[in-house]
Structures are given as C-alpha cells and as structure tokens.
C-alpha cells in the first residue's frame, strides 16, 4: 500500500474535481470516499495478530482484494440511511485504493483483481510502498486542486464548503 | 427505526459476512497453487529448487549475502540469502528466489524497506487516520436509536 496520506489525498482530489460537475460529491460524501479508500487496508489487522505469533495473512487476504473490499463497503453502507449512495461512495474509495496499489512493485505475484473468478494478477511496478516522494507529489497536487477550487469559489462557480 | 428495516439490515449483513467468510476460506485453500511458496509452505513441504517468496528482517550481512529472519510464523526461520543487493541489519526485505538446501535462497528479486522508512510510513499513515477520524466526526454522527450514521447539519 502507499501510505494512508496518499490514499486519502487521492480520494479527496478525485471528489473535489468531480464536484465541479456533480453536486453529490459534497463534503459528507467526500469523507465517505476517503474512508472507503482505506477499507482494503483493514487487512493490516494481520500485523497485530502477527505480533502474537498468528500468521493470518492468507486467511484474510480477500479483504485486500476488490470483491472482498466491496463486500466490506456493502457492510459499512448498512450503517447509513441512504445505503445506495453510501455504498457507491465507499466503493469509489475502494477503487481509488486499487488504482494506487497497482503502481507498486512486488517480488511475487501482483493483485488478484478478479478473484475468485480468475487468479491472474496485475502489478505495474512503478514505485514502492514507503516512497515518500509519491506522498509529497500527491499532497502538492491536492494543494493545487484546493487553491484552484478556492479561486473558483470566489468567482462563485462552485460551493465553498470543505 | 422500523423493526422490519432493522431485520432487513441484519439479514443483509449476515449474507455479506457469509460471502466474505467464503471468500477467505476459498483463498486459504487455494492460494498455494497460484503464488510462489511462502514460509508457511516451506515449513510444510520444503519445495527445494522452486522459486519461493519470503519476507523478514535482515539479521546480519556478509560478503555476497545476508541472513533474513522471518518471524511471521510461530516457528522463526532464518534464511541465508545469496544476493549482491546492498542491505543493512534491521532492514525489512521481501524477496523471491530459488530455494536451496538448509534454508538457502539465491535471490532474483529483492525489495528493501529500511526500518526508519517503514516506521515513517506507519507514522504518517497513523496521522492520516486520525485526521480522517476527525473529519468523519465533523460531518457525520451516529444515531444510536436509529443505529445509523447521519449527516451533521452545517
């Protein structure tokens, strides 16, 4: 995984850009997309179990595969009044997570994007998970998008919330 | 909230949880056939001569290689890695390579994450999580009666 700053910032950038055109990407739904971007990394709970000697990585790995993540997004969306919108927003966040994770280097196989229907795996191998240059670049882009949106707000083109 | 709606949610949640459990079980039963053997498989069947994929911390270095300790299983395994890749004790390493006798691996691909870099990754991720938690709380609140998150009015 890239770090969570990158995941959250990328989700925010996407929502802020989409909001220029679609009103549904309001601050509340943007937060849902940002939260959805972290759903696949629930698999990191395995780190805690590993600390006590239980290796459960291969037992809960589907949490970090698209279908498993979308199921968790579905579960989480049950806690919202407008479940359909909540699921779509959380699901969009999940999708941004996998787009970013595809860019990572891997020594073994890549991500089983179509599990359980197909075991083919994909990985672009452009960067490593700890590369903070990616974080800096994404945060800079977020700042740029923020400044542009502020400029457009002042002109009254878009709403000023968030 | 209506009882029927609550029941509906409970049934949906049960179905989704069952689906997720099924996915996890299916993965656990079948992953070995679709990826390089890891330490769990190595301890079980020791596939000598095959390409394996392991990870762990560098315990010590020597000319032409290093010792890699994998602590992900109950039984700690120390591999002797043949590689010219520069590493330092404490580095987190993931690698693939051919497994020889006595836990020796001739590495073909190596990914190194220095310990400071790994800790920095965890730290900034923690900060991002705290920020998101604050943001979520700013825009949503949990209605215990209705058992659902609702938008805060701004």
How would the blueprint of this fold be written?
The complex is a heterodimer of chains A (162) and B (154).
Chain A: H1 4-19, H2 27-36, H3 45-51, H4 57-60, H5 66-77, H6 83-101, H7 132-154
Helix pairs in contact in A: 1-2, 1-7, 2-6, 5-6
Chain B: H1 3-30, H2 39-45, E1 51-62, E2 65-70, E3 77-82, E4 92-99, E5 104-113, H3 115-139, E6 140-143, E7 148-151
Parallel strand pairs in B: 3-5
Antiparallel strand pairs in B: 1-2, 1-4, 2-3, 4-5, 6-7
Walk me through what this model shows.
The complex is a heterodimer of chains A (162) and B (154). The mean pLDDT of chain A is 92. Chain A is 56% helix and 0% strand. Chain A is built from seven helices and no strands. With 154 residues, chain B is an alpha+beta fold. Chain B has helices at residues 3-30, 39-45, 115-139, and strands at residues 51-62, 65-70, 77-82, 92-99, 104-113, 140-143, 148-151. Chain B has three domains: 3-32; 37-113, Nucleic acid-binding proteins (OB fold (Dihydrolipoamide Acetyltransferase, E2P)), CATH 2.40.50; 116-151. The relative contact order of chain B is 0.11. The chains are: A mainly alpha (162), B alpha+beta (154). The interface between A and B is large, with 49 and 56 residues.
Name the structural class of chain A: mainly alpha
Q: Tell me, rounded to a whole number, the average pLDDT of chain A.
A: 92
Apparent shape of chain B: elongated
- What is the distance, rounded to the nearest whole angstrom, between the alpha carbons of the first and last residues of chain A? 27 Å
Low-confidence residue ranges of chain A = none
Taking the sheet with the most strands of chain B, its summary is:
5 strands, mixed, barrel
What distance lies between the first and last C-alpha atoms of chain B, to the nearest angstrom? Answer: 24 Å
The most extensive contact between chains is: A-B, 49 and 56 residues
Structural class of chain B: alpha+beta
How does CATH name the architecture of the largest domain in chain B? Beta Barrel
* Average residue-wise pLDDT of chain B: 93
Unreliable segments of chain B (pLDDT under 50, ≥5 consecutive)?
none
Q: How helical, in percent, are the residues of chain B? A: 25-40%
Give the beta-strand count of chain A: 0
Q: What is the radius of gyration of chain A computed over CA atoms, rounded to a whole number of angstroms?
A: 17 Å
What count of domains describes the coordinates of chain B? 3
Query: What fraction, in percent, of the residue positions of chain A are helical?
Result: 55-70%
- Give the SSE order of chain B as H and E letters: HHEEEEEHEE
- The strand order across the widest sheet of chain B is 1-2-3-5-4
Outline the biggest β-sheet of chain A.
none
């Amino acid at each position: 995984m890239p770090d969570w700053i990158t995941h959250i910032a990328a989700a925010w950038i996407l929502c802020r850009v989409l909001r220029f055109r679609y009103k549904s990407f309001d601050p509340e739904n943007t937060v849902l997309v940002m939260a959805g971007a972290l759903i696949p990394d629930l698999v990191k709970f395995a780190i805690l179990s590993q600390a006590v000697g239980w290796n459960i990585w291969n037992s809960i790995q589907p949490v970090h595969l698209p279908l498993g993540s979308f199921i968790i997004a579905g579960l989480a969306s049950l806690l919202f009044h407008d479940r359909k919108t909540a699921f779509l927003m959380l699901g969009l966040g999940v999708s941004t997570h996998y787009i970013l994770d595809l860019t990572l280097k891997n020594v073994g196989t890549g991500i089983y994007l179509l599990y359980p229907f197909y075991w083919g795996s994909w990985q672009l191998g452009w960067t490593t998970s700890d590369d903070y240059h990616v974080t800096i670049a994404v945060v800079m882009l977020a700042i740029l998008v923020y400044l542009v949106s502020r400029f457009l707000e002042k002109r009254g083109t878009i709403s000023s919330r968030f | 909230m209506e009882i029927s709606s609550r029941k509906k949610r409970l049934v949906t949640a049960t179905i989704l949880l069952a689906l997720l459990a099924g996915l996890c079980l299916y993965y656990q039963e079948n992953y070995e056939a679709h990826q390089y053997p890891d330490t769990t498989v190595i301890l079980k069947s020791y596939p000598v001569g095959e390409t394996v994929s392991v990870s762990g911390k560098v315990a010590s270095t020597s000319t032409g290689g290093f010792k890699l300790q994998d602590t992900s299983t109950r039984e700690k395994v120390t591999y002797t890695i043949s590689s010219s890749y520069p590493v330092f004790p404490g580095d987190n390493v993931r690698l693939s390579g051919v497994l020889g006798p006595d836990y020796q691996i001739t590495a073909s691909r190596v990914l190194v994450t220095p310990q400071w870099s790994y800790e920095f990754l965890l730290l900034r991720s923690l900060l991002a999580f705290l920020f998101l938690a604050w943001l979520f709380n700013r825009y949503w609140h949990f209605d215990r009666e209705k058992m659902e998150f609702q938008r805060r009015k701004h």
